[in-house]
C-alpha cells in the first residue's frame, strides 16, 4: 500500500504540474457547460428529472473522452522517457505500479468530474431533483471513468507511444460501446452476452435515471479489474522480452 | 557477491547472450566491455532484474534473481544508458521519490539525500527542475538515484556517455570514492575510463564472455608480457631493428598513429612492441643512442588489447599496419 500511495502522489503531482491535465479539465467543463445550457436547459420545457438525466447522458461521453486522454500517458510516457526502467528495477511489484498509476489518474478524473457539480445544483433554482439521483449519476460517472481509465492504462501499456495509446484505447472503448449494436442483430445467447458487455446501453442508463443496481456496479468494477489485470500481465511479460 | 551461471538470453530467435559465467567479489569495480550489440546491456539488465534470463541463474549476495527478484532489486542501484528522470520534478523531490521507491523511510531519505547530493556534486541544483538541467547534471542525478538507497551493488550502463572531459574526471573521482562501499559494474565504450576506474574486466563478444581478467592479465595474454607503444621520428628500419635486437622483445609491428597523436610529426612512426619484461628504459636508451628521435613511449592502451581480442584489428587506433621484417 505504501508503494501504491507513493506512486499516486507522484503521478497526481505530474497531472497537476502539466498543462495537459488542466487543458483536459477545462475542455471537459466547457463542453459539459455548453451541452448543459444548449440541450438540458434549452429547447422544449422539461421536467427537472429529464434535465438531470440529459446532463448525465452527455457527461458519460465527455467522461469517456477525458479518461482516454488522461490515461494515455500512464505507462507509454514512462516507456518513452525511460522512467519505466526506474519503476521496474525498484522493489515494487508490477501490480503496485499499475494500481498506483490507475488510482492517480482516477482521482484526478474524480476531481474533474466533481467540479461539474454546480450544473446539477443549478436545477434547484427553477426545479427540484433528488440528491439520490445526483449521487447515482455521479457514482455512474466515476465507475465509467474507472472502467475507461483501466482500458486506457492497458492501451498505454501495449503502445509504443502516447498517440498509439490514445488510438488503441479509443478503439477498445468504442468496441465496448457498440456491443449494444451486436446485441440488436444477434440471437441468444450471443445477444445476452453482447448486451451485458455494452459499456453504456444496459448499465449506465440506470445510473442516469437515478437507479443503482448491484449488477451495474459489478459490471464496471469487472471491466476495471480485467483491464488492470491485463496491464499487470503486460508489464510482467515485458521482463521476458 | 555476484555469481552468474550459464546466463542466456534470447529475444525471439535472436541470441543476445549465451552461457555467460562470472563472479564478482564484494567491493570490486568491474568493467564490462564489448562492441555494440555484444550483449553488455542485456547482461546488465538481467543483473538489475529488469529482464529475466531465458536460462541460467544469477545470485546477488546469495539471493537468486529468479526466486526472489523483489529482494534482489533492493540490493541493486541501476543507471541505464538514458538516466530515468522525471523532467517536471526538482532534483531533491525526484531523489526523495527514488529513495522511497527503493524502500527508504521519509527520515532515512532526508539523511541519505544530503550525502548523495554531496557525493554527486548536485547540491547547487537541488531545487532546480530536472528539465532545465544540463546533460552533465542529468547524468549525475541519474547516478544519484542509483545510489540513493546505498545499495551494495551498483550497475552503471555508460555512466560517462556524453559528458565533457571535466565531467568525466569528476564522475571518475566520484566512482572511485564509492570503491569499497559498493560492488560496481560499469559498461562503457570509453576504454581509458574503464582502464582507470576498474579493478577487473569482463569482455563480451557476440553474446559470449571471452575474457574475465585484470588489464595486466589481458596485456600478458595478448602480448606475452608487456605491450608498449613507441613513437619514433626518423629511420623506421633502424628503429625496428634496434628494438628487435633487444633481449626479451618478442614482437614489433608498425601501427597506425593512435589518437594521442592527432597531428603527428612528419616522418613519425608508431611501433607496437611486445616483450616479456618492461623494456621501456632499455628502448629509450638504445633508440637515443642509435640517433633515433623518440617522441612517444608508453604502455599500450587498453583499446588495442580489446580490439585485438575482439578481432577488430582493422580499427584505426593503434591497429597493426604491417609486419616489419
What does this structure look like?
The complex is a heterodimer of chains A (241) and B (325). The mean pLDDT of chain A is 90. With 241 residues, chain A is mostly helical. The longest helix of chain A has 28 residues, at 131-158. The two termini of chain A are 28 Å apart. In chain A, 80% of the residues lie in helices and 0% in strands. By secondary structure, chain B is α/β, with parallel strands linked by helices. Chain B has helices at residues 40-47, 69-75, 91-101, 106-119, 135-147, 165-177, 191-197, 215-223, 236-244, 280-289, 302-309, and strands at 2-11, 14-24, 29-33, 55-60, 63-64, 76-79, 153-157, 183-187, 200-205, 208-213, 226-233, 249-255, 268-275, 293-299, 320-323. In chain B, the strands form three sheets. A six-stranded mixed beta sheet of chain B has the order 6-7-8-3-9-10, with helices on both faces. In chain B, strands 14-11-13-12-15 form a five-stranded antiparallel beta sheet. Chain B has a four-stranded antiparallel beta sheet with strand order 2-1-4-5, covered by helices on one side. In chain B, helix 3 crosses helix 4. The interface between A and B is medium-sized, with 23 and 28 residues.
Provide the descriptors you would attach to this structure in a database record.
A: 241 residues, mainly alpha, globular, B: 325 residues, alpha/beta, disordered C terminus
What spatial form of chain A do the alpha-carbon principal axes imply? globular
Radius of gyration of chain A: 19 Å
Radius of gyration of chain B: 23 Å
- The domain count of chain A comes to 1
Structural class designation of chain B: alpha/beta
Shape of chain B: globular
N- and C-termini, Cα separation of chain B: 49 Å
Q: Which strand order do you get reading across the main beta sheet of chain B?
A: 6-7-8-3-9-10
**Helix vs. strand class of chain A:** mainly alpha
Tell me about the largest β-sheet of chain A: none
Number of H/I helices of chain A: 13
Amino acid at each position: 500500500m505504501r508503494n501504491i500511495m507513493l506512486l499516486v502522489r507522484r503521478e497526481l503531482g505530474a497531472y497537476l504540474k502539466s498543462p495537459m491535465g488542466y487543458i483536459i479539465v477545462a475542455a471537459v467543463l466547457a463542453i459539459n457547460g455548453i451541452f448543459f445550457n444548449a440541450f438540458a436547459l434549452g429547447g422544449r420545457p422539461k421536467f427537472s428529472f429529464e434535465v438531470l438525466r440529459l446532463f448525465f447522458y452527455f457527461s458519460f461521453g465527455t467522461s469517456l473522452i477525458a479518461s482516454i486522454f488522461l490515461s494515455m500517458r500512464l505507462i507509454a510516457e514512462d516507456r518513452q522517457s525511460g522512467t519505466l526502467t526506474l519503476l521496474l528495477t525498484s522493489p515494487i511489484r508490477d501490480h503496485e505500479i499499475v494500481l498506483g498509476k490507475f488510482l492517480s489518474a482516477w482521482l484526478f478524473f474524480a476531481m474533474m468530474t466533481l467540479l461539474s457539480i454546480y450544473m446539477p445544483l443549478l436545477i434547484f433554482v427553477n426545479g427540484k431533483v433528488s440528491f439520490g439521483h445526483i449521487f447515482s449519476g455521479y457514482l455512474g460517472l466515476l465507475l465509467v471513468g474507472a472502467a475507461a481509465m483501466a482500458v486506457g492504462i492497458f492501451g498505454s501499456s501495449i503502445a509504443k507511444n502516447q498517440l498509439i495509446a490514445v488510438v488503441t484505447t479509443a478503439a477498445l472503448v468504442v468496441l465496448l460501446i457498440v456491443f449494444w449494436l451486436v446485441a440488436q442483430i444477434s440471437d441468444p445467447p450471443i445477444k445476452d452476452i453482447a448486451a451485458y458487455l455494452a459499456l453504456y446501453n444496459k448499465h449506465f442508463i440506470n445510473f442516469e435515471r437515478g437507479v443503482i443496481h448491484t449488477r451495474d456496479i459489478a459490471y464496471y468494477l469487472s471491466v476495471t479489474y480485467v483491464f488492470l489485470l491485463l496491464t499487470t500481465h503486460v508489464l510482467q511479460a515485458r521482463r521476458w522480452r | 557477491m555476484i555469481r552468474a551461471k550459464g546466463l542466456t538470453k534470447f529475444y525471439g530467435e535472436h541470441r543476445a547472450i549465451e552461457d555467460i559465467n562470472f563472479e564478482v567479489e564484494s567491493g570490486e569495480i568491474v568493467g564490462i566491455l564489448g562492441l555494440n550489440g555484444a550483449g553488455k546491456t542485456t547482461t546488465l539488465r538481467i543483473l538489475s532484474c529488469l529482464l529475466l534470463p531465458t536460462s541460467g541463474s544469477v545470485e546477488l549476495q546469495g539471493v537468486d534473481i529468479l526466486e526472489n527478484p523483489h529482494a534482489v532489486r533492493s540490493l541493486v542501484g541501476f543507471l541505464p544508458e538514458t538516466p530515468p528522470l522525471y523532467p517536471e520534478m526538482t532534483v531533491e523531490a525526484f531523489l526523495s521519490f527514488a529513495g522511497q521507491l527503493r524502500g527508504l523511510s521519509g527520515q532515512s531519505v532526508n539523511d541519505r539525500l544530503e550525502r548523495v547530493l554531496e557525493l554527486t556534486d548536485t547540491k547547487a541544483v537541488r531545487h532546480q527542475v530536472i528539465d532545465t538541467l544540463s546533460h552533465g547534471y542529468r547524468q549525475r542525478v541519474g547516478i544519484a538515484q542509483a545510489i540513493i538507497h546505498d545499495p551494495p551493488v551498483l550497475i552503471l550502463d555508460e555512466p560517462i556517455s556524453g559528458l565533457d572531459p571535466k565531467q568525466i574526471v569528476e564522475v571518475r573521482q566520484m566512482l572511485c570514492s564509492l570503491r569499497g562501499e559498493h560492488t560496481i559494474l560499469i559498461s562503457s565504450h570509453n576504454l581509458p575510463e574503464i582502464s582507470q576506474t576498474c579493478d577487473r574486466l569482463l569482455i563480451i563478444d557476440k553474446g559470449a564472455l571471452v575474457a574475465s581478467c585484470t588489464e595486466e592479465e589481458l596485456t600478458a595474454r595478448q602480448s606475452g608480457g608487456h605491450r608498449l607503444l613507441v613513437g619514433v621520428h626518423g629511420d623506421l628500419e633502424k628503429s625496428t631493428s634496434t628494438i628487435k635486437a633487444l633481449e626479451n622483445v618478442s614482437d614489433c609491428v608498425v601501427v597506425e598513429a593512435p589518437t594521442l597523436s592527432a597531428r603527428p610529426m612528419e616522418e613519425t612512426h608508431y611501433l607496437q612492441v611486445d616483450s616479456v619484461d618492461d623494456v621501456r628504459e632499455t628502448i629509450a636508451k638504445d633508440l637515443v643512442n642509435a640517433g633515433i628521435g623518440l617522441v612517444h613511449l608508453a604502455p599500450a592502451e587498453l583499446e588495442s588489447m580489446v580490439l585485438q581480442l575482439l578481432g577488430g584489428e582493422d580499427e584505426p587506433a593503434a591497429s597493426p599496419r604491417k609486419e616489419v621484417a
